Amino acid sequence: MRLRLCLYGGLQRVGGGREHALELPGETMSVAELRAAIARAHPPLAPHLPTAALAIGDTIVTDDGQVRDGDEIGLLPPVSGG
Amino acid sequence: MRLRLCLYGGLQRVGGGREHALELPGETMSVAELRAAIARAHPPLAPHLPTAALAIGDTIVTDDGQVRDGDEIGLLPPVSGG
Amino acid sequence: MTEQVDTTRWIQQGPLPLEALLAETDDPECGGLVVFGGTIRKENHGKRVTRIRYDVHPPLAARTLADLEAEVLERFPVRHCRLQHRVGTLELGECSVWVVVRAKHRAEAFEASRYAIDQLKRRAPIWKEEFYEDGTSEFLKGCSLVDGHHEH
Amino acid sequence: MTEQVDTTRWIQQGPLPLEALLAETDDPECGGLVVFGGTIRKENHGKRVTRIRYDVHPPLAARTLADLEAEVLERFPVRHCRLQHRVGTLELGECSVWVVVRAKHRAEAFEASRYAIDQLKRRAPIWKEEFYEDGTSEFLKGCSLVDGHHEH
Fold first, then answer.
1. C99: which of C19, C46, C110, D107 is 20 to 30 A away, CA to CA?
2. Is the CB of residue B52 less than 8 Å from the CB of residue C146?
3. Which H or E run includes B59?
């Protein structure tokens, strides 16, 4: 499956830009598996993953969620708006 | 002495209008004496005097203050701004 | 005897322009702005209000508001505090009072704003006359300015 | 997958017009209006700030702000709560966020406003990059959106 990984806030610096294509085996996987896949594909992001939330579209998902081919994945580090 | 007595808020209804001339003996008197004089000159105001503050010009004065000929006296019932 | 100050800085006849107070207090040292506005409500103690008339002792009210602004700056770590109150007749929804506070941090701005409006209501020589749908009107019970009569 | 909603109700590129939010929430059932504005401060943690860039996840941020507005109306006896946040680069003194709350009584309006801005800062997917006089920039440490990582 092919996902669009979008990095937000300081993660754009760590990962080199907003958008990254992710090609992964299978048609679906759990969010926990996706986190591991992101760490493998982008090692500099790995230390930031424990505090980064993951969104599919405009919904934050927990590790037992599922991602599917075509999903837009947002990786959201700790927030600092206001 | 001649004073200008100005009534504020609901006291205008009780005393009949904003401004009242007060002619009193002597050239000066204490605020406490003035309160008694107001009660005599305007009996309907008497029950309101204990909770009404008294201002000379733009200064609130206590009972030991002095009034003089020509002073503008404001009689200020409990306030309700905002 | 009464000092001739421009009372319109604090007491105004017409609508109060919030924009002017925001511009006046604009300050890049501040990160938090809190504005309180009091607006004319159409119901009070179960009665239908149609409008409110504010009676004001302008020079004393101006001085009271100016003193309160200074007191707020002294008591709280805030950089700006401006107070304005209207006089005369206001329609439903209109704004009778603005409290504008700016501070480095938001917590202090909230606290100072709350303090300022509470104290303004207790101390400013301003009287609210409510007019009702049935044609009657009433001056509201208020806070005595005589020491020992602060029953709020 | 992403629902197409008009995010500009909550997230805007240009200056946020407070007047529009005041007009939108105008309500004669309300006696108290509290506005909080966050403004760009020229100093933070001892460093001279020249501007701030906000990075935002617009659809998620819009949903977060909309949900927070609804939550505020449920938790507090207030009649209106509107939230708006800017995205992009802001200069010193500019306003990055508005919280507009209207209630029958002022105490509730203050409490709800305070709650809304505190929660917005914790929950909204918005990231602040501060630019400094020395030419460097930094993303600020923030609040994790992952459960169990709310260290505030």
1. C46
2. yes
3. strand B59-61
Q: Do chains B and A touch (3 or more CB pairs under 8 A)?
A: no
Cβ contact (<8 Å) for B53 and C144? yes
- Rounded Cα–Cα distance for residues A68 and C70 (Å): 61
Please measure the distance between the N-terminal and C-terminal CA atoms of chain C and give it in whole angstroms.
Answer: 32
Reduced to 3 states, what is the DSSP secondary structure of residue A69?
coil
Q: What is the ipTM of this complex?
A: 0.94
Query: What are the tens digits of pLDDT across the range D49-75?
Result: 999 999 999 999 999 999 999 999 999
The SS3 call for residue B82 is coil
Phi then psi dihedrals of residue C2, to 5 deg: -70, 125
Q: What does the angle CA C28 – CA C31 – CA C33 come to, to the nearest 5 degrees? A: 105
Query: What's the CA gap between D28 and D79, in Å, rounded?
Result: 11
- The conformation of residue B79, written as its DSSP 8-state character, comes to B
Strands D126-132 and D47-56: antiparallel
Q: How many CB pairs under 8 A join A and D?
A: 109
The chains in contact with chain D, meaning 3 or more Cβ pairs closer than 8 Å, are: A, C
Torsion sign, CA atoms D64, D67, D69, D75: negative
Measured at the CA of C91, the angle between CA C115 and CA C133, to 5 degrees, comes to 110
Contact C22, D15 (CB under 8 A): no
Please give the Cα distance from A9 to D53 (Å, whole number): 10
Looking at chain C, which runs of residues are DSSP E strands?
11-12, 32-39, 43-44, 47-56, 78-86, 88-91, 95-103, 126-132, 137-139
Q: Does C96 touch chain B (CB under 8 A)?
A: yes
Max Cα distance, chain A (Å):
40
Residues D68-121 pLDDT 10s: 999 999 999 999 999 999 999 999 999 999 999 999 999 999 999 999 999 999
Q: Checking DSSP bridges between strand A2-7 and strand A19-23, what pairing results, if any?
A: antiparallel
Give C80→chain B minimum CA distance, Å.
Answer: 20
All chains having 3 or more CB pairs closer than 8 angstroms to chain A = D
Q: How far apart are CA A69 and CA A66, in angstroms?
A: 10
Q: Decide if C2 contacts B58 (C-beta within 8 A).
A: yes
Residue A45 is given by DSSP the state: G
